[in-house]
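Input record, target 12 of the design panel.
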């Protein structure tokens, strides 16, 4: 469940209500956990253009019913060290306190009914390359390393402050969202990922664990070749294991199933949207058989989708409870 909002008070109020509704819906449907994202970042420039507090610009998008949906990324507004130095970071620095305020309300109302994962910022990789654009980021990573490291450390500090804010709000889990891969594989050479981001990833996971929180990384694309490194960085779980990007549960289970909880791998465009009951049950049965042995698998869709139906979600839950009881018989 994702709540995004613009940086103004009316939209802030609406987003909090949406986040509460997301938690309430999870409880009503019977989910065991829910991701509640508090993400106050967008700033409407005109009817077609949005920018955000990270330094990214987007195209406004609406769905088939005329409702605004997540905008499409179009480029960055920070071209170098001088732009970053001059960039107004005041709204970014407000995120932890705002997150604490509203997640406290949600946790008090629903925290005894469903396990809440909180999220309130883009990851270190996304927050570094997207404000510059990918080509400029790659050049800067080699020629202006001090500048790139400064951006990474800023966002690393921000994530750790958000973790403290969520802990103070009583939220037990954190989803660190950072898309690291295309459908074909990692967006960077794994060695460069390690060189630039490993220290920050470890600090984030160690901060979460020091607070007694669980932390899952969400990364779209085919992350097969990154799974061992993700485990080395200390994450407790990985999502979404995107099936349309070629991610195989059996392969992931064999590689890191004893070190990471595997979350997802259910194609959201089909199973919780339009698949008949028999297909939903068979898909869930196969996922549990592939990844459920010995525990360490959370049944979930790989993404969100505007056309998910309550009926299909209930079928998924029903199938999960039928096939997911231990000892497994699938």
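The sequence produced for target 12 reads:
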């Amino acid at each position: 469940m994702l709540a995004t909002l613009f940086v103004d008070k009316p939209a802030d109020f609406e987003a909090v209500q949406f986040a509460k509704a997301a938690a309430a819906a999870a409880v009503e449907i019977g989910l065991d956990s829910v991701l509640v994202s508090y993400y106050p970042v967008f700033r409407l420039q005109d009817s077609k253009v949005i920018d955000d507090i990270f330094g990214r610009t987007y195209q406004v998008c609406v769905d088939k019913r005329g409702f605004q949906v997540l905008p499409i990324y179009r480029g960055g507004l920070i071209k170098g060290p001088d732009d970053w130095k001059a960039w107004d970071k005041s709204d970014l620095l407000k995120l932890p306190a705002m997150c604490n305020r509203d997640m406290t309300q949600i946790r008090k109302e629903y925290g005894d009914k469903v396990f809440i994962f909180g999220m309130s910022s883009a990851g270190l990789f996304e927050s570094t390359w997207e404000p510059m654009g990918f080509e400029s980021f790659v050049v800067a990573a080699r020629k202006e390393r001090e500048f790139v490291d400064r951006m990474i450390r800023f966002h690393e500090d921000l994530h750790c402050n958000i973790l403290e804010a969520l802990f103070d709000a009583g939220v037990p889990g954190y989803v660190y969202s950072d898309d690291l891969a295309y459908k074909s594989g990692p967006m960077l050479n794994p060695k460069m990922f390690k060189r630039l981001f490993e220290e920050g990833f470890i600090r984030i996971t160690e901060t979460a664990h020091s607070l007694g929180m669980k932390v899952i990384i969400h990364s779209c694309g085919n992350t097969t070749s990154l799974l061992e490194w993700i485990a080395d960085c200390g994450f407790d779980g990985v999502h979404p294991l995107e099936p349309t990007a070629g991610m195989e549960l059996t392969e992931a289970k064999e590689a890191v199933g004893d070190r990471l909880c595997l979350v997802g791998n259910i194609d959201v465009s089909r199973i919780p949207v339009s698949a008949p009951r028999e297909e939903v049950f068979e898909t869930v049965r196969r996922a549990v058989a592939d990844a459920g042995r010995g525990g360490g698998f959370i049944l979930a869709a790989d993404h969100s989708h505007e056309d998910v139906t309550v009926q299909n979600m209930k079928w998924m839950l029903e199938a999960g409870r039928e096939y997911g009881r231990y000892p497994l018989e699938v």
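The radius of gyration is 20 Å.
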